[in-house]
């Protein structure tokens, strides 16, 4: 007699069971199915079919591997590809579980294996003519590794890869198929996929600590270093993980308020060439002193948020900078704009990104003890405000800094010094705020500079990069 399912699973019948829905709450223990492995496995197949994650299967050993899927496909900045290896495990004759390994390949060198730059192939060093391509000198091992790379425009630019067990994905599958198993629905026959079934959205590896900060009605201030590729990706990935779990998110960007209608129109568009041109017509993108907020990474982040909206996910964006003002008047204007947005939609989670002066919740700066940053004012007028400072590993960023010789701003790629805390994105809150009023940090790993979008094909993911002659415009 088959072991009966526990009554606790009945609660899952009310939970969302569709393949595209994610859950932020991921237990730190394994999901165990109270059914035999052979009975559970057809539901696993159906889950990945419904999620539109094509796979190949080793039927003899109950193992399947999905095809490569790009995180925010179409963005040259993202450049992350993922696939899953799903392994069925027999816990007991009547219980089973899944191990899911996320395999990631990326243009980001922070995931590179130690010694990757060395050529371990049997053909290493045979070609001594610098004018001759190395493509004919691949060993069988080298060739197999090359052919295993993702297919697409990023295929020949992959710099690194890693595999790690993905407990979040394991629980996502568990929550997706347990309601059907609890109802004892037949799953052996192929099920037709409804036309309205949501596709699986690849949001990257779960950001540690994000779920603790994501609250309806809450305001999370992120104080960033402008001009990196990683912060816009961190924002897009955070939003993706939140909205696919059912939390409505409004993103506040430190861009001129004059761009509000233009950005809103782009987010509601189809993202075609004309839509991109209309977005990039704004003078903001052509600033003579591009400080990193008009980078290619920011433009692509807007595209990524547009893609989420196009899937019917609840994402909104507003801009709040007042560049014609300076000092305390500007800080006051930033505050009032953000405050109006939060009060208009108090049920949403607001993720507000700015330079790390504006987001401080403590009064005063080293050169002005009476200075009241935006974060300080918001904290005084709202119930739930948390500020996180940016943490990162050393690298580079597109920064505008004063040139001591010319007394003018010098904008370009500059060294950014940080501390290595690993490769994985995370948020971490302290027990109390520091002297700047920050309650913790958000960590983005190794940073790399992102150039102005106008120099990189107008920020259009489908456009070719600008020529060298155009880069000085």
Question: Can you walk through the features of this model?
Answer:
The chain has 473 residues and is an alpha/beta fold. It contains ten helices and 16 strands. The protein has helices spanning 37-50, 140-147, 167-183, 210-213, 230-243, 260-267, 273-280, 296-310, 327-344, 374-381, and strands at residues 32-33, 55-58, 63-66, 69-70, 80-92, 95-106, 160-165, 219-224, 249-256, 315-321, 349-355, 385-393, 395-402, 409-416, 426-429, 440-446. Strands 1, 2, 3, 4, 5, 6 and 7 form a seven-stranded antiparallel sheet that branches. A hairpin with a 6-residue loop joins strand 13 (395-402) and strand 14. The longest helix is centred in the C-terminal third of the chain and has 18 residues, at 327-344. The termini are far apart. The relative contact order is 0.14.
